[in-house]
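Shipment paperwork, digital attachment
Item: protein structure file
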Amino acid sequence: MTIVGVVVNTPTMALAETTVIPLVYMPMSIAGAPGIPQALLVGPDVSTMNFVVRAKSLSSGMIPSIRRALDGVDPELALADVRTLDSILARAAAQMAFTMALVAIAGCITLILGLVGIYGVNSYIVSQRTGEIGVRLALGADQRAVSAMILTQGGRVIVAGATAGLAVALAGSRVIESVLYGVGPRDPAVFTATTVLLLLVGLLACWIPARHASRLSPVEALRQE
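Attachment content:
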């Protein structure tokens, strides 16, 4: 026999296989048929083969047509376990999809908690600096300048936190490599999008207290002081 080509590694039993299973692809022209002893088989045994049918939609009315096509090859071939490719992929990815759903839910909860935490801290800081903000506004400070000052101070902390989180994520990315499929553990697009999202959420949490501080009345702020 002559090797005519080598193909890339392809999942056989599951989408994320840790061990590559060696396979040899042989043409149907040398396949063995039912009744031939196992020792005399040269190619694949047609009695245990999978047949793939390409169609726009698989309905029960197509099964007789598939049966007639198989009869044209060998009337003794059995037809059983008819499934769609979507159902096979969904079953193979069910555990991975469940794990990723849990990770996504945990990530969303963490993002919301972070948003609430940053907003709470900045609101507390603004409340503690009400007198200072009132003096600035009374002396003619622009509302935009006051808002930008608070937003800049909070943004520095957010950028520092995002940088530290990015470093930790890069260092621990190998931990979740086993549940990834089609995406590398250090995919630049994923890290970029996640970092930008975190920065936007953090800046939003800082902007709300900053906007509230810029609209303070100097008289009321000084009275509270």
